[in-house]
């Protein structure tokens, strides 16, 4: 987040301004900010953690031992400044324009993978949705859908329980917290299809793993996860 945004949290750009530096250049995220803060990194294909330099495996050690069950995991950036500020603005202050800017950061998915037939945003419980007024994952999915010409199915994945916040929980605790929290909508035609779950931040991967398991249980052929930001290695 820029100094101006820290001093004035509502000081987001006018049309044509960069959401990071507020520079007037016609881009939502200018080339200088992309170069400084969003350089592509080799990432684990299973959980999107950055891979050590020189590694030849496509999977990190954690995914070799305990995979999330995804066909592929795609992340644009690490969860750090300035992207954490933009994500918090989207999530907690309703700055919906940030979703469009952030969605532009996501790289194209690998060409060798099946193209998803639809984007499935991580669902919110209706109580939290009423309180917040929007689902950040859905806003990101809609922006990605427009960019990549993919439909968004916002009602296929359901959150049955308003689970407590998971911010301070490790992966086993998150898995226990999410047990029985999700379901697939009756009649959602996922069998045999290829789908991409969309979320704002991936920490331990427990949420996308639970949703992928639910989709696979109903016959999905492949499930990817597309997230804006990946937190640092929780095991490090």
TrEMBL record:
It comes from the Bacteria. Belongs to the ComF/GntX family. Gene3D superfamilies: 3.40.50.2020. This is ComF family protein. SUPFAM superfamilies: PRTase-like. PANTHER family: DNA UTILIZATION PROTEIN YHGH. It comes from Inhella proteolytica.
């Amino acid at each position: 987040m820029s100094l101006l945004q820290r001093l004035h949290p509502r000081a987001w750009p006018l049309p044509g301004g960069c959401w990071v530096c507020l520079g007037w250049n016609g881009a939502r995220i200018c080339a200088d900010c992309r170069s400084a803060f969003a350089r592509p990194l080799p990432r684990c294909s299973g959980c999107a953690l950055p891979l050590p330099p020189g590694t030849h495996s496509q999977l990190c050690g954690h995914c070799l031992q305990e995979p999330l069950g995804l066909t592929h995991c795609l992340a644009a950036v690490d969860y750090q400044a300035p992207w954490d500020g933009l994500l918090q603005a989207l999530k907690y202050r309703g700055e919906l324009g940030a979703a469009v800017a952030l969605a532009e950061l996501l790289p194209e998915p690998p060409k060798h993978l099946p193209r998803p037939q639809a984007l499935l945003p991580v669902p919110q419980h209706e109580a939290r949705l009423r309180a917040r007024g929007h689902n950040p994952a859905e806003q990101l999915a809609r922006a990605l859908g427009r960019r990549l010409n993919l439909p968004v199915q916002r009602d296929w994945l359901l959150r049955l329980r308003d689970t407590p916040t998971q911010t301070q929980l490790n992966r086993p605790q998150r898995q226990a917290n999410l047990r029985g929290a999700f379901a697939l909508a009756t009649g959602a035609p996922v069998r045999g299809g290829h789908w991409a779950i969309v979320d704002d931040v991936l920490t331990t991967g427990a949420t996308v793993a639970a949703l992928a398991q639910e989709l696979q249980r109903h016959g999905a052929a492949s499930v990817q996860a597309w997230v804006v930001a990946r937190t640092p290695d929780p095991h490090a």
